[in-house]
Specification:
The chain has about 450 residues and is an alpha+beta fold. The protein is built from 13 helices and 26 strands. The strands form seven sheets. Strands 6, 7, 8, 13, 14, 16, 17 and 22 form an eight-stranded mixed β-sheet that branches. Strands 4-3-2-1-5 form a five-stranded antiparallel β-sheet. Helix 2 crosses helix 4.
């Protein structure tokens, strides 16, 4: 279901909190993304919060101080927990009620327009983002990772299969996916050890065991399911967005040498189960509404089967989310130099949409549940500088990247794959004239040396 734009999308609106109005802010009043946080280093319980400028609105405090009423108050109470699952399960009307009432309280005119609310109590609910730590925002019962970029699939096909048939026969007919591991999903700031596993060296007749030699990242979006569906009751395509709460950044770390040996016939296993890093902030589908675009399947391409096609998706099923990958190396960190940008692309290039992933996931009767996480698959564009994985940027390590030089950063560095000490930073935002910039914050993860190498 496509909801019309409303006053919370008006780019001219501002907040009484000055940092929310700053040029380039990820978190203006039109965004209001959700996370789960507490004060850093404290023994406080984790609870839900909403970003505004450089602050977090503590929803437990908002609920405790009775700053909201009606459905919005019930929604805030559901957020005053260590995970947002109960809030997700309340559905779109509750999500919108909380967003709209928080917008009213935070808007620049709030002091005179919102009756019966103590603005002192509201201000007391603000916590500086610089003083908090985050955790995974939901109890993720199940995690499914898709494979939906035709450009990424073609680049990988050229590397591994060659010839003219770079895409598998099913790619243009179904959103391909596999079930992943939830226990190793961490929030931005996650550090993990280089995985161990089996790999088959080139030309060898038997595998060897050891640390991954071809460690990679994958630039993705994470899609959090809001309301679920009953077992045996598929979600129709034109209702799919009613079941999606919002979107975060997701890094699907990948051990390419382990993957190449193990993936036949059932797909990746150890190559993907050691770490997945998401950003703490979930940007709601309502906040992203101004950036929805027509989803197009070009003439001459296979048209989707009926259950994957709907006028509403054709009209506005795509999302124009700008995405970047940055790399901070140990050497640059030592010299006090910032990270180097590796690529810049947009989610609008994906061959399959979020709604199609949801509809396909459930068409066989599978029941999604509040807090389930879907990975979009690697997001790559039509040119090499828009690639969402290092394996593409370096042609499988054969053409190492030379990192952009920075003053005082020491000698030039190259990368075929990730080295110990490397930190990969994903960034995302939406921006266009007449509308506020909607940011995602960042997803940052750092590679530590292997254990037992």
């Amino acid at each position: 279901m496509t909801r019309p734009l409303n006053h919370t999308h008006d780019g001219a609106r501002g907040s009484w909190l000055a940092s929310a109005n700053a040029a380039g802010s990820d978190f203006p009043i039109q965004n209001l993304p959700f996370a789960v946080f507490r004060r850093a280093g404290s023994s406080e319980p984790f609870r839900g919060g909403v970003a505004i400028g450089d602050q977090v609105v503590d929803l437990a405090a908002v609920s405790r101080n009775a700053c909201l009423q009606g459905l919005a108050a019930k929604a805030a109470a559901a957020c005053a927990q260590p995970a947002l699952n109960d809030f997700f399960a309340m559905g779109p009307e509750a999500w919108q009620a909380l967003r709209h009432d928080l917008f009213a309280l935070l808007e620049s005119t709030a002091c005179s327009a919102v009756a019966g609310v103590s603005m002192d109590a509201l201000r007391a609910s603000l916590v500086a983002q610089a003083e908090v730590e985050f955790t995974v925002p939901a109890r993720i019962g199940d995690y499914t990772d898709f494979y939906t970029s035709v450009y990424h699939a073609a680049n990988i096909g050229k590397l591994f299969r060659g010839g003219d048939d770079v895409l598998t026969p099913n790619f243009k007919w179904i959103p391909i996916g596999y079930h992943g591991r939830t226990s190793s999903i961490g929030v931005s700031g996650q550090a993990f050890h280089r995985p161990m596993g089996q790999a088959l060296p080139q030309g060898a007749g038997a595998p060897v065991f050891g640390p991954c030699a071809r460690l990679d990242y994958e630039l993705e979006l994470g899609v959090f399911i809001g309301q679920g569906n009953a077992l045996g009751a598929p979600i129709p395509l034109d209702r799919a967005f009613d079941h999606v709460f919002g979107v975060c950044l997701l890094n699907d770390w990948s051990a390419r040498d382990i993957q190449a040996w193990e993936y036949q016939p059932l797909g990746p296993f150890l190559a993907k189960n050691f770490a997945t890093t998401i950003s703490p902030w979930i940007v709601t589908m309502e906040a992203l509404a101004p950036y929805r675009q027509a989803w197009v399947r070009a003439d001459g391409e296979p048209q989707p089967l009926a259950y994957l096609d709907a006028p509403s998706v054709r009209k506005c099923g795509a999302l124009d989310i700008q995405l970047e990958v940055w790399l901070q190396t140990e050497q640059r960190r030592t010299h006090g130099t910032g990270p180097a940008r590796l690529s810049h692309t947009s989610f609008r290039h994906q061959y399959w949409s979020i709604a199609q992933m949801v509809a396909h996931h459930t068409v066989g009767g599978c029941n999604l549940q509040p807090g389930d996480l879907l990975g979009s698959g690697t997001i790559s564009g039509p040119t090499l500088d828009q690639a969402g994985a290092m394996i593409e940027l370096t042609a499988g390590g054969r053409n190492p990247l030379t990192l952009a030089a920075a003053e005082g950063a020491g000698p030039a560095e190259t990368r075929g794959f990730l080295q110990d000490g490397d930190a990969v930073i994903l960034k995302g935002w939406c921006e266009k004239p007449g509308h506020a910039r909607i940011g995602f914050g960042e997803s940052r993860g750092t590679v530590l040396p292997a254990i037992g190498a």
